[in-house]
Amino acid sequence: MSTDSDAPIVSNFLRTIIDNDLKSGRYAQRLWAGRPGPASVRQQGTLDPARIRTRFPPEPNGYLHIGHAKSICLNFGLARDYQGACHLRFDDTNPEKEEDEYVQAIIEMVHWLGFDWTYGTETNCYYASDYFEVMYQFAEALITAGYAYVDEQSAEEMRQMRGTLTQAGSNSPWRDRPADESLGLLRAMRAGEHPDGSMALRARIDMASPNINMRDPVLYRIRHATHHRTGDDWCIYPMYSWAHPVEDALEGITHSICTLEFEDQRPYYDWILARLMELGQLAPPLPRQYEFARLNLSYVVTSKRKLRQLVDEGHVQGWDDPRLPTLAGLRRRGYTPASIRLFCDRLGVSKADSRIDYSILEQALRDDLDPSAPRAVAVLDPLRLVITNFPDDQIEPCVAPVNPHEPDGAQRNFPFTRELWIEREDFQEEPQRKYFRLYPGNLVRLKYGYIVRCTGCTKDEQGNIIEVQAEYLPDTKSGTPGANAVKVKGTITWISTAHALAAEIRLYDRLFSVAHPDAGDQDFLAAINPHSCHTVQGWLEPGTQASPGATWQFERLGYFVADRIDSRVDRPIINRAITLRDSWA
Ligand code: ATP
Ligand code: MG
């Protein structure tokens, strides 16, 4: 693991569990053969040098989002802190929805977040589909031992027989068929002799269990579908709830951490592993499942289905649209890996569901960028300011720190001239109360330049202000002796019009205008903020190198990033990542 912890380690219930497991030596005798496998492989191994093994198991059916980041930081972070290994495992058991494009995008984003799945000489990146044959052998073993049977009921019949929360289910008429018959049918299923939905392999547990998940859950269903890795090798595919514990056990996972909705699945997880161990297929100690509360963030949706809908229906420009909470979108918006790790650290881990306000994510970005981001001046809504007593051909060099936290560090240079761009809101012809910026008669400092006295403005025929005039006070240049002799209440930013760099600036806002766009049965599309992207033509301080991904604090405005897809140094396209202060509430 390559990332150092960003924050002091705060304990949580998972750390307590791991501490206790390490103290009691629960996993100390665990063998590891350097690769995943059943008991027969594991027994060829030596003591596992990794003190714990965790895993991050995405299904490659979409792009990772901020919720996944929480799981990534948690699983990879625990492995790092306990000298363990964290596996990246693609849970690709659903052929219809999965694609290699998503596999590649997931790999890229886990790396981008700063995590890595190598441990010593091991490269722990695995695919559930690589275990299809072992899983199948396990299924045959379960049938032989009387723990599974082929059911020929339709899906609808199974549903009706399952019972309800208050009513026990009833046994399938096929439940007690001889093991040999089930074995023959499973082999025929695998050989492609039966159509989709005509039969399924089920665990034989207890149709009267108070936990519905224990009422003979399905292990294998028939799906004549092409898989992105195994092609047409298989036409039966394992159900997630059966595949997942097996994948964990094959990989020697010690702590299998998942979100709370899987709590009711835990007895089944344990049942599967216990049966396979009893049958000699799996070597102890077995993995254990622990649940934590998923991240719910306000003002976004994180379900992959809903994200896909936003992309497919053109509500956003793609999976990496800077308004989306996908990691690709957050990166393009200007979020740094460190800001996302900081956010996840601040959230902590708990077992209680809650909703996190979006502003906490935004604050993590400010806190990460403030000490490091270079400063520059930009003007987003330009208005011309003419310094009427400054010679037309004079160029006065000015300097400013690249980062005010390092006043003795690198400096930036830019010229002061007779014509400047200022922000339109920095002038008011008739000032409101407590307005300290430019208005006729008022003195204002042009930051890093001179103090000027506003003398008036010019309007077009419609009465719009098209120019402001001022006179400069020659002995007041910042950094020269006596510069502060004249006191002013307002300081504004500016750029020489002759030297300014033109830029397209994309001012993003939240994609949804309500805090919980998908609460209840609400149509989340109806909550889309129609003003979530507003593009302006602005000006940048000369010398600003807008290479893709470059990040700045534009003074007084916020944090901005050169769009990593569209920006070019000679044609800057800049995204606003976040304003300097939270302006939402
Ligand atoms: P979705 O419901 O959006 O499809 P998912 O949970 O099915 O998401 P997976 O690819 O299966 O997506 O998730 C991989 C891992 O990320 C799982 O271990 C899951 O628990 C975790 N994860 C997904 N969403 C969140 C979230 N909002 N908060 C914390 N962990 C999450
Ligand atoms: Mg899932």
What does this structure look like?
The structure is a single chain. The protein is α/β, with parallel strands linked by helices and 585 residues long. It folds into four domains: 174 residues, HUPs (Rossmann fold, 3-Layer(aba) Sandwich), CATH 3.40.50; 106 residues, Glutamyl-tRNA Synthetase, domain 3 (Alpha-Beta Complex), CATH 3.90.800.10; 114 residues, Ribosomal Protein L25, Chain P (Beta Barrel); 122 residues, Ribosomal Protein L25, Chain P (Beta Barrel). 24% of the residues lie in helices and 23% in strands. The chain is built from 13 helices and 31 strands. The strands form nine sheets. Strands 16-29-30-31-27-28-17 form a seven-stranded mixed β-sheet. The two termini are 39 Å apart. Adenosine-5'-triphosphate binds next to helix 3 and strand 12.
Question: What are the salient characteristics of this protein?
Answer:
4 domains; single chain; 23% strand; 585 residues; binds magnesium ion; seven-stranded mixed sheet; binds adenosine-5'-triphosphate; 24% helix; Glutamyl-tRNA Synthetase, domain 3; Rossmann fold
Average of per-residue pLDDT values = 95
What is the count of distinct domains?
4
- Mind describing the biggest β-sheet? 7 strands, mixed
Low-confidence stretches: none
Strand content: 15-25%
CATH top level assignment of the largest domain: Alpha Beta
The overall strand count is 31
Could you give me the name of the CATH homologous superfamily of the largest domain?
HUPs
